[in-house]
Design a protein that fits this description.
about 15% helix, 2 helices, alpha+beta, 3-stranded antiparallel β-sheet, globular, 5-stranded mixed β-barrel, OB fold (Dihydrolipoamide Acetyltransferase, E2P)
Length: about 150
């Protein structure tokens, strides 16, 4: 690998379904068939009940910032052109508290906030890997769409 080549995730038996779903622009999280708890990071055994039966549940892709950091100094030369950028732990809606690490995009850094509503997007990193990224939900646009719908369907 060259000094400027980015290191990408290497899917294995446990994580391949996640990366395959991302490539289809779907966000899926591993869920235990026995106790129905969600888990991330994917693995062969449910940490809640010990079952080895799992499925990959499609989730909405909505969430909120649990925590975040603004990266101002590249940890590797491959990211030097990207700084500054925000990386967050995104608590995914409807998953019982699953937190997914991802970049926040399309958001001025001074507007990133804990609790900020986000929606998933996807960025193609290679032929095999598509990364989930999160964008702020524009509340003003959502409110406008809701009001227009009310006018059409009183």
């Amino acid at each position: 690998m060259s000094a400027t080549a980015r290191s990408l995730p290497r899917p294995d038996a446990d994580t391949r379904p996640f990366w395959d779903a991302c490539r289809r622009h779907e966000l899926r999280v591993q869920q235990c068939r026995a106790c129905e708890s969600f888990r991330f990071y994917p693995g062969p055994i449910c940490p809640s009940c010990g079952s080895t039966a799992n499925l990959w549940q499609r989730v909405s892709g909505r969430g909120e910032v649990y925590s975040y950091v603004v990266v101002r100094r590249a940890a590797h030369p491959a990211f030097a052109g990207d700084v500054p950028y925000a990386v967050a732990l995104v608590e995914l809606e409807g998953t019982g508290g699953i937190r997914l690490p991802a970049r926040i995009v399309d958001c001025p850094l001074d507007q990133a906030r804990i609790g900020m509503a986000l929606d998933v997007g996807f960025e193609t990193a290679s032929n095999e890997i598509t990364l989930p990224v999160f964008r702020p939900v524009d509340v003003r646009l959502a409110d406008t769409a809701f009001m227009l719908n009310l006018r059409r369907n009183p």
